[in-house]
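new request in #modeling-help
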Amino acid sequence: MTIWNYVVTAHKPTNVTHSCVGNFTSPQDLNLIIAKCTRIEIHLLSPQGLQPMLDVPIYGRIATLELFRPHGEAQDYLFIATERYKFCVLQWDSETGELVTRAMGDVSDRIGRPTDNGQIGIIDPDCRLIGLHLYDGLFKVIPFDNKGQLKEAFNIRLEELQVLDIKFLYGCSKPTIVVLYQDNKDARHVKTYEVALKDKDFVEGPWSQNNLDNGADLLIPVPPPLCGVLIIGEETIVYCSANAFKAIPIRPSITKAYGRVDPDGSRYLLGDHTGLVSLLVIIHEKEKVTGLKIEPLGETSIASTISYLDNAFVYVGSSYGDSQLIKLNLQPDAKGSYVEVLERYVNLGPIVDFCVVDLERQGQGQVVTCSGAYKDGSLRVVRNGIGINEQASVELQGIKGMWSLRSSTDDPFDTFLVVSFISETRILAMNLEDELEETEIEGFCSQVQTLFCHDAVHNQLVQVTSSSVRLVSSTTRDLRNEWHAPSGYSVNVATANATQTISVRIFSLPGSESHHKGTIRNNRREIILSSCAFEGISYLLCALGDGHLLNFMLNTSTGELTDRKKVSLGTQPITLRTFSSKNTTHVFAASDRPTVIYSSNKKLLYSNVNLKEVSHMCPFNSAAFPDSLAIAKEGELTIGTIDDIQKLHIRSIPLGEHARRICHQEQSRTFAICSLKYNPASGEDSEMHFVRLLDDQTFEFISTYSLDTYEYGCFIISCSFSDDNNVYYCVGTAYVLPEEMEPTKGRILVFAVEDGKLQLIAEKETKGAVYCLNAFNGKLLAAVGQKIQLYKWVLRDDGTHELQSECGHHGHILALYVQTRGDFIVVGDLMKSISLLIYKHEEGAIEERARDYNANWMSAVEIVDDDIYLGAENSFNLFTVRKNSEGATDEERGRLEVVGEYHLGEFVNRFRHGSLVMRLPDSDVGQIPTVIFGTINGVIGVIASLPHEQYVFLEKLQSNLRKVIKGVGGLSHEQWRSFNNEKKTVEARNFLDGDLIESFLDLNRSKMDEISKALDVSVEELCKRVEELTRLH
Amino acid sequence: MHKQTHRHVWKRIRDREAGKLRANHFANRIKSNRISQLQLSNHKDIVSPHKGAINSLQVDSTEGRYLLSAASDASVAVYDVQRPTVYEAGGGGGGGISKHSSIFVVDKQHQQGHKYAVSTAIWYPIDTGLFVTGSYDHHINVWDTNTTQVVVNFKMPGKVHRAAMSNLSTSHMLIAAATEDVQVRLCDIASGAFAHTLSGHRDGVMTVEWSNSSEWVLVTGGCDGAIRFWDIRRAGCFQVLDQSQTQLGRRPPILKRSMITKDSSTKLRAAQKKHANGSGSRQQPIGRVPSKGPMKQRLHPGMLSTQDRATAHYGAVTGLKATEDGMYLLSAGSDSRLRLWDVESSCNTLVNFETVRLQINKPLQLATTQDSALVFVPCMRSVKAFDMWSGNTYTILRGHYECVNSCWFNQHDQELYTGGNDRQILVWSPARSIADEMEGTAEDQDNWSS
């Protein structure tokens, strides 16, 4: 039993919440800056597309992201405000390539009620002040002084309580805001106010407009010369200014994103909730607005932000689908669309459900998520490590080495595969029919082990054996020249490029030479690969016989080696081989734990390959198998292509509809999902809800059951019942009738998969929505509205089965999330936290055993072990509670004790037990239990339960890392991780931030040494222990 | 396409998980939904042991679990509103009812108990280890909850009408006491002595309320009809509310464009108001109050209002309630008026609360919802819920047989507790659906034990 938890991000947030364009990194650079809730990315627009420059975490949920240019500055500054009322102003330092904090502060107040329509942060176009709407009834002003410094903030009382949007107007001699608000009769209006800085109050603004479209939701300020504002409604778009009022009807839609096209403000891109992008044109004669015109352009992902970049390139950020870089063409394509998608950027959000399955039976879990929404709904298969797609394989024992060779210098493809054994060498080749067959190269010596092969200039090949180096014609295959090793000597290690061959026998490592010589003496083999360049940086990689890899930064002009790091890649000797994938250099480390080494953002990364043990590998780019690798495993040679090189590999299965719940059934090799399809063609939004059966390899729909009108799928599980050998899918539904506030009816549907079809076996009507189902003691446990109900599977006289109610428990507000373990039932309530129930077999009764009395609004629950239960709640926090069976009083035993609290900053929709990585029995972390979670922002994270000693050690490490690593913008990590909801803010307890801890590996050596000294643990030991943790996810 | 209000709970839960509905917006809408369904509870009963009128109700702010009640028969009781004492299964298809009996009662028989009516019982704000009672026997007692023993006692100069502690306080542990005497006394639990007295009222003080935005600001209502604001770190009150000083709406009127250059008379007012929020150095409130004539320049700003005879009500001020956001103050008077004040401008907002009849000779305990959209007001035998900004009657809660004295709104559960002269404590909660009919068996399917 452990209450100590390690929380780490396996997949970063991918939901794009904000984006903006400006000259941030230099006056000549055009930058796209993207916020993904808790991270910002800075990109440079170049002729090659978007180039990533920086990707950093923010210690807060970003509420506002704005670029602005103070008076007299040549570059833009970046303003960020977080939902917990911190703000900062960032500047780019061109010399260091780093972010500098120009200003920071706290804009929280003791008065006012936090707004729940979303915080607003805006900057006056003339940079006179920043305006913030964070609390109902208050508008906060942070003035700038003449030098662009921020002055003391003050509040102005705002009459309007239900504020929908506020923007600054352009071209006003005094800073002027326009406020879109809703009155208490639900009518919508706009009003303008001038900000009188001296009086610290509003003055009546130049104009106002009442009774807008009831769905008016978005303001777009228009720059000079036109000025004024656009008001985007669901059915109408209005241009409004002191001089003009123009309106245009539009197809009913919800517009959430816009991007300005022209500096003069005459054209805008609008994105709606169906993914339609339109061009809105303000028709004008000189400075006089005469009308509006809107023109559909085509379909994109459903946009959460639109940033017009340059030359008709547009970035579409999305919350419900992948983000995209698009080009707007002058001419439509065959479908009439002007939109060309150039690039897609993965977005897993929102993850509303997922399951953990081992589809390829490799002993490693894959996460299959329900992601996206509306038409952009999809399933995503998320797998840790790099997969090999086998194309061909041959049974071969005892492989000692492999090299690929071309048949001529100018041939772009490899033809020969040289396979070396302990006392012979064989040649495999692609014949004219593109088949792999054994062949001969007469000039090669085939009776001995080959140490090295390489292509050479002038249509030649090189073979190195222990006794000779042979030069062979690649066209005639005849020996052309040979060098013999002197008598009594033999070649041990060799490498070559196209023009020369180098052999070495003795190698000395720099620095601490005697120590390393000692190390070398203990290793039977050393393999060196020098001058390996990643992203323009040279490294020296040294593979040791004990499974460790050393890497150094290599200064190619001075030969100096710096920044030594040591990584464990297994326990067996490693062989290294360079290969190229997508025009990028990679190194394959073959051992008992095969790994690909690559560089991303100027950082070396290691990603495991999903193979048990690889002894040798070489690239094999043949015409029949382009960009393939040849891999030698135990007793087998395989040729296959390799997945994209990244830590988590994501396969996307677009559905065109929104999958809400998913379940896997091993026995039928199927997934089943609850999904809904929106039908925007109707006059009003209407939905169709389905239960769909999918093949678990191809993800094709193989069977569909349509739910009733107004019947919505809530949950799905695969289960079996006592005294019945069949496996069933059970689906819980709700009838969501427009006139009801809460469902009063639902169904439990029991399906069998027969001949690849969903067959309805039984159904049971319920008096409420079936929010959750669990297999429980051979029966079915359902959460129905405010009640937990247990059903047994009863054989009727006619030979069919039915669900029959046995017992229940009520008293919940809404029982939304249920987990079971043995006879215990853990319930996550809508607003009453977690309760623990127990099923009493003899009495056929369910009783409450204990409860957490905090008013947590739950979003997910999980059972960690018999006594510890994990919850996620509405304010983005995690907490753990413990059953107190040994308490002295009924009250103590009836209370679940809160033993852990932590601000995750993410809304968790689901916890599942499982692991993204193979559990290696020899690994220290192999025994640590883990829970995977999925969030609205597309985060996949892991929570691991640690032993106490490990927790205490890592807590000290975290504490020291906080001193060494400062948050961007001066934000505090400690404050960020404090548990925070509307009732309290308390320090994080018994949870560690794995993202911070694992950033230890990214530090430079001097900072590592600093922490090593503080903890009195060697850097090598620290790296080893942190590396072990990275293998949790 | 007309806009759908999306009131459906199920759709809201779905939209929250997809990120279409902000998490805090979701919670606030569910709460509003539940409040709109308040009715005499069909599933929850509080079993009152009191033999006298209920004068005071409070649920602890830490867990929202323990209800403290005080009565005219000198008794004080505590109930667990989350965990019932017994659960009565309903017969004939009715839903079950959880019954919450008192965990303990302190009354006249207790050697340290009060001798006469207890007007107030409040929890120590930080935890439920202590509670405070004030009585017509001229005493304020501080009790240890676990031992039910008095740990500190304060002798007051007259009957205690109301006592209060600040929920915001991190620097002091002061009990503010309103008694028949004209002085408000601040009792220090830490020292067991009076820390301070506040002078200015011309008649007994009926009610006290701490600010919801500053731990240093106390608001008092007196039998003289005055509402006074005090900064307890200084002598004298800094503000007296005048019912004739009015604004229409939530804030003073916005300046017209033509008045931009006009000199403002707000500087002195602004200076005075710096104390109001306790953080004047960070925030400078704006007020727009017409000048009342020449300012008395010689007096210390904090003493300006000592001689001010302005009244908030034509009669005693019987109830005060600060809104959760700290920006407004509700007052009830024996003139049967309910008023809403803008704390910053000190103006009567002229919200016209519909005709009410208020008790005239006892303190009333008003309650508001967490978002301050509604205020619950004891109106003789019923409780009226008013919309805060229109003054319209939102609902009338009828159930008591005699005058209601106290309302407490439990934010955790969106439940309202009311107490009256009929000795009852009633629970008003969202309706809970009737449990399933029995399905072919005589056994009770829904077992509950505690």
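bot summary: Residues 17-106 of chain A form a domain with the Thrombin, subunit H fold (CATH 2.40.10).
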